C-alpha cells in the first residue's frame, strides 16, 4: 500500500510541475563561469583590498575533480589569467581575484596592480589549456556590481 501511495504522490507532483528534473547539461555537469564581481565596493583606489574585491568565479558541477592547469580566463581587452597547477574539486568553486595573495583551494590571485573587469561592460571567456572554448559570460550594466553567469 505504501508503494502505491508513493507512486501516486510522485505522479501527482510530476503532473503539477512540482517535480523538476535537471536538464541534460545539468545532469552531466560542467566546469563553467559562475559569477563576475566587476565593480569592487567603494572607491577604485587600486589598493590590494579593492583589487581583490573584483573577481570571477568558476564552478565545477561534475562528479569528479578537474585539472585546470593551463586553462585561461580572459576579458574583452585580452587580459589573461592562466591557471598553474590547480585542481578544482567536484562541486567546488574557485575565485580568481585580481590583486595579490596566496593561492588556496578556494582562491587564486592574478597578482595585478590594476583592475581587469570594466565597471560597465565586459566579457569573460574560459578556455581549456589547448585553447578550446568552454564558456563566456558578458555583462552590460552599471546598475549592479556583479553578474551571475
Word description of this protein:
By secondary structure, the chain is an alpha+beta fold. It has three helices and eleven strands; from the N terminus they run H-H-E-H-E-E-E-E-E-E-E-E-E-E. It has a five-stranded mixed β-sheet, with no helix packed on it. It has a four-stranded antiparallel β-sheet with strand order 5-4-9-10, with no helix packed on it. A two-stranded antiparallel ribbon has the order 3-6. Strand 4 and strand 5 (80-82) form a beta hairpin. Mean pLDDT is 86; it is low at 1-27.
Largest sheet, described in full? 5 strands, mixed
- Rg from Cα: 19 Å
- Number of contiguous helices: 3
Instruction: Look at the structure and give the mean pLDDT.
Output: 86
What's the N-to-C terminus distance? 46 Å
What percent of residues are in strands? 25-35%
Query: SS-based structural class?
Result: alpha+beta
Q: Strand-and-helix sequence, N→C?
A: HHEHEEEEEEEEEE
Large-scale geometry: globular
Number of strands: 11
What is the share of helical residues?
10-25%
Regions with pLDDT < 50 over 5+ consecutive residues?
1-27
Amino acid at each position: 500500500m505504501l508503494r502505491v501511495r508513493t507512486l501516486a504522490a510522485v505522479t501527482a507532483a510530476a503532473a503539477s510541475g512540482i517535480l523538476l528534473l535537471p536538464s541534460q547539461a545539468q545532469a552531466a555537469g560542467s566546469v563553467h563561469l559562475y559569477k563576475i564581481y566587476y565593480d569592487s565596493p567603494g572607491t577604485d583606489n587600486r589598493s590590494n583590498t579593492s583589487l581583490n574585491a573584483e573577481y570571477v568565479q568558476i564552478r565545477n558541477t561534475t562528479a569528479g575533480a578537474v585539472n585546470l592547469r593551463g586553462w585561461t580566463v580572459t576579458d574583452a581587452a585580452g587580459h589573461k589569467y592562466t591557471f598553474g597547477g590547480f585542481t578544482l574539486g567536484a562541486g567546488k568553486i574557485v575565485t580568481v581575484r585580481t590583486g595579490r595573495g596566496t593561492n588556496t583551494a578556494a582562491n587564486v590571485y592574478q597578482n595585478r596592480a590594476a583592475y581587469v573587469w570594466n565597471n560597465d561592460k565586459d566579457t569573460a571567456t574560459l578556455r581549456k589549456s589547448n585553447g578550446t572554448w568552454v564558456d563566456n559570460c558578458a555583462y552590460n550594466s552599471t546598475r549592479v556590481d556583479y553578474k551571475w553567469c
